[in-house]
Amino acid sequence: MADNISGLNNFHLDVLKEIGNIGAGNAATALAKLLDKRIEMRVPQIRIMRFSEVSDVLGGAETPVIGILLQLQGDISGSMMFILDYPSSRMLVNILMGKPMETELEYDEMTCSVLTEIGNILAGSYLSALSNLTNLKIIPDVPALAIDMAGAILSVPAIEFGKTSDTVLYIENVFTDGCDSVIGDLFLVPDELSYGKLLEALGVV
Amino acid sequence: MAEIIKVGMAELKVSRHPSILTTLGLGSCIGIALYDRIKKNIGMAHIMLPSSSIATASSNRAKFADTGIHDLIEEMRRCGSDIRDIVAKIAGGAQMFAFATQNESMKIGQRNAEATRAVLAGFRIPIIAEDTGGNYGRTIELSSEDGSLKVKTIGFGIKYL
Predict the structure, then answer these.
(1) Is residue A205 part of a domain?
(2) A51: nearest CB among B48, B97, B137
(3) CA distance B6 to B81
(4) pTM score, two decimals?
(5) Are B98 and A166 within 8 A, CB to CB?
(6) Cβ contact A41:A175 at 8 Å
(7) Separation CA B29–CA B95 (nearest Å)
(8) The CA-based dihedral angle spanning residues A12, A27, A68, A75, taken in that order and rounded to the nearest 10 degrees
(9) The domain spanning residue A170 has which CATH number?
(10) Structurally, how many domains does chain A consist of?
(11) Which residue segment(s) compose the domain that A119 sits in?
């Protein structure tokens, strides 16, 4: 049974990767429509890590990033996180606000609200694809935004895992523009009981 | 230059003078810095959760405040430190995200800080400085030279405890 991380085999991991593919595919389409811009995504990655490795996922624990976090409720629980760096956030906000691309971004209430909404739309489209696929009810909570060190932001879902496990599982999708420059990372972090449920709903356990 | 040793999330390390212990990107976690004022041994733990009692199957003791601090002190003793010479500085325990619906699991930073204080008090180790709470991440660096703790943030500058 795959009710803990060590019980997952390669087949399970492939299925979780496929979940990332389908969810993020839908999210990429939503983002492309929103920006009227070509959006691509890389092959999803399943990251199973010890906690000590978590903070280095985004190229350094101290790298400043913008994180939008949504808690998940319903048949599965866990969280979804969209993480982007300063240049990407500037690009996204300027496009959406109809401003010239080189406009400097101030992280005021308006900017944060735009970024939060982008996270909301991405997560919503990801989760609705996932929900349709699995017939599971998945409800995202109101999103929250933080601008800080990558390590500090990534530790938030990791702490939830810490209650039951010594490793953490992230399903990671990277979105890029047509020229392969990274726009942002979308993480689905189902809690330990939830990925068993996801696999079960897809008939693989 | 003293050697810089990194302590990851849910890890603990002890080293002798001269050395520097650092932990990067503390959010709701707490960095516990211990300093032996006589021998200049230093120890650091990066705990994630307040108490090992909430765990079902815990193999890593370093992730909890109670077992983590206990083991950190044991390591210091093994390095020759007398517990009466040890002082503590703590940092972290932030709430990174502010949610409209305040559930208990979001206040984990505050609970980590409270548990850390209580555990250290239980060992009669004085906390001589702390920088906890708020809604921002911290990187800390403990020097064996004088036991100073450098706290770095994004947007709130650098300070020394």
Answers:
(1) no
(2) B48
(3) 21
(4) 0.89
(5) no
(6) yes
(7) 10
(8) -50
(9) 3.40.1550.10
(10) 1
(11) 5-200
Looking at residue A105, its amino acid is L
**Which of A55, A71, A164 to probe the B interface (max B CBs under 10 A)?**
A55
| H or E segment to which residue A42 belongs | none
pLDDT score of A68 more than 90: yes
* Closest residue of chain B to A55, computed from CA coordinates: B25
CA-CA distance, B96 to B114, in Å (whole number)? Answer: 17
Q: B34-70 pLDDT, tens per residue?
A: 999 999 999 999 999 999 887 666 578 999 999 999 9
Full DSSP string of B10-62: T-EEEEPSSEEEEEEEESSSEEEEEEETTT--EEEEEE-BS-GGG-SS---GG
Domain regions of chain B by residue span: 3-160
- Sequence length of chain B is 161
Determine whether the interchain pair B27/A156 forms a contact, defined as Cβ–Cβ distance below 8 Å: yes
In a domain, A67, yes or no: yes
pLDDT band at residue A180 under the 50/70/90 scheme: low
Per-residue confidence band for A183, with pLDDT thresholds at 50, 70 and 90: confident
Q: Catalytic amino acids of B?
A: 29
Q: What is the ipTM of this complex?
A: 0.88
Of B49, B100, B138, the CB nearest to A162: B49
Quote the mean pLDDT of chain B: 92
Q: Using CB atoms within 10 A of its CB, is residue B124 exposed (0-12), middle (13-18) or buried (19+)? A: exposed
Which of B101, B136, B137 shows the shortest C-beta gap to A151? Answer: B137
**CATH 3.40.50.620 is held by the domain B3-160:** no
